[in-house]
Structure formats: C-alpha cells, structure tokens
Input
Amino acid sequence: MKALEEKILSEGTVLPGNVLKVGSFLNQQMDSDFIMEIGREIARLYAGENVTRVLTVESSGIAIAVAAGIALHVPCVFAKKHRSANMPKEVYTASVYSYTHKETYEIAVAKDYVGENDRVLIVDDFLANGNAVRGLMRIIENAGAKLVGCAIAIEKGFQGAGDKLRAEGIRVESLAIVDAMTDESLVFRAQ
Amino acid sequence: MKALEEKILSEGTVLPGNVLKVGSFLNQQMDSDFIMEIGREIARLYAGENVTRVLTVESSGIAIAVAAGIALHVPCVFAKKHRSANMPKEVYTASVYSYTHKETYEIAVAKDYVGENDRVLIVDDFLANGNAVRGLMRIIENAGAKLVGCAIAIEKGFQGAGDKLRAEGIRVESLAIVDAMTDESLVFRAQ
Output
C-alpha cells in the first residue's frame, strides 16, 4: 500500500531499540480517514475469503481492526490483555511475551465471541516478533475456528516472524514491510 | 438513538454491581456496521461545531471514537492508561479512579496530539461516575484546547454524572440514557 509507505516516510520516526514510531497517524493519534482506507484495503485483500470475524488485541490494533470490520461488514473482536472484572468466566486465553514492555501478559477472548463455525481474520497494527499473532492463533485453534489469515499494517520484515508464518502456509498480508531500518533510512520490501 | 436502546434491550445483560454488559456489540465484540452508525450519529449531533479532534481513553472507547472520527473526517486520539515505553516524554496527564477495577490509573496524551487551537469532542462508550470524562477534560484544559462537548454511547443516568456535567454548561449527548436498571428491566430517559 503505497500511501502507507509514504505516510511512514513522512511522519514515522525511528527510536532506539528498533522502535518505529507511527503514533501520529496509526497509534495514539489516528488519521481517521486513513485508518478507514487501511480497513478497505484489508477488505479488498481478503474479499472472497468469507471472513466471519476480525480478531485483534487491545489497544493499538483496535482502530484498524474495526475499520476492517466495517469494510467487511463482519463483527470485530478484541482480546483483552488481562482478565477484567466484567470478563465472562468462560474465556479462551493465551500467554504473550511483549518485547516492548518486557513482560508476559495473558490475552483472553470470551468463548461467546469466537466459535467453531468462524473464519477468522487476525488484524494488527504491527508484526514484529509475531508473539501477539501466535497468541491469537492459539485462541482461534482452541475455539476450533478457522484462521483465514493475517492482515498487518506494518511488518518489521527484518525480524523474520512474518516470513516464518508464511513458510508455515499462513497467509500474511502486510500493507508495508520494512526490511531494514536505521535512523537515516527505511527500506521497504517490494510487493 | 432508538436502535441503540433496542440493541441494549435485546443483547445487554445486567450484572451485579450496576454493571450493564454490552460486550456482544459495543465492547469486546463490536458489531462493526452498528459502530459506524453510532459514529455517524455522533457526527450528525456535532455537525457545525467545527470539531478538530476526537479524544477518548483506551480501550473500550476506541472503536466508537474512531468511527466518529471517520464520520467527522478528523483525527482521533486516545489517552493511554499508563506511560508506555514508546510514549513521548512530553505528555499531558490526569489521574482517574476506576470504580470497575477499584484502582487509580494515570491517563496520558502526547502534547503533540492536542493543542490550543483544537476544538475537542470527548467520545466514550459509557458515562457512569464521570471520572474518565473529568480526566480527559483536565487534559484538554492543560492543553489550552476548547472542549466542544461529550458524545457517549450509554449514559448511566441514575449515577448523575452526566446531569452534573450538563448543569456545569457542558454539552453531553448520550445516545441512550439508562435512568433505572434492575435485573428485570431498564428504563431509558425520553430524549
């Protein structure tokens, strides 16, 4: 998605520790019209796949996941990062290690919100080490649902997790893949 | 918004402690098309108010806030609930007490994402005791921005926080106001 690459180049900044900060349009602040464009692009890529449900994890994936849900006209579900007071007792859970926050957290989805007849599309803003996606995959597997694929806004290709998933036969569509990243330059994979 | 009241009656459940659970369409699972309808209704209510920015707090407010942003064609910003590793150092913060989780947390918005020329619309899924809205109002005030008003999906009218804000001259538009709630029945305020 050319528009995303251009937006990353013009508004993104590289921080120490291989962090690509895109908080001005994709995370803490969201360019709403652009988020909807991303949602439409995801819907275009997975058209004909009979997706019944979009699944993401709170918080930063919610905006593009709901935009994809709007474009696909299917419900969007987000995994919560810890069991909250209002969470139904019956949940599917998975443990996820976050390199950003240097901690392991539980993600949980109520059993009511994903089932064996579902064809699930995982949506997230970033794919780096793949831990969040792997956690969501375990939840989909536990629910007996079918994973249709993953739709990611920005994949850090140099971390290899996306290509590992592809090698396992999982469809991973990333709207921009950063194959190299320094303070001075970003190299996008040709797609 | 009649459609929201009907959805609450058909899909919502009342849990102990005055909790109204609408996780099947508004929170953990989101009825994407309906979320977009809510966004459009918020945009209709605040049309002509020259809103420049929608502000919410993670996580459950993000979906309708971004839908409102899409419908208003303005950026959507969410306050983070604690300072994260990727958070810019320059942030506006406020303390918020959560009755649901029985704890006080910090909310923070990067100074880059709200400024003195902004006309800000606060959007959230619930208005109960008003603590989250008050925290967002302090951030708007600290930024020197103008609060245009609040757009809430479901207001718990019986908790009084919405009417207190209105009495202070703040515009609060709630798409459904629950004035009484028991296991057996919900009473909506006529609007």
Observations:
- The CA atoms of residues 176 and 191 of chain A lie 8 Å apart.
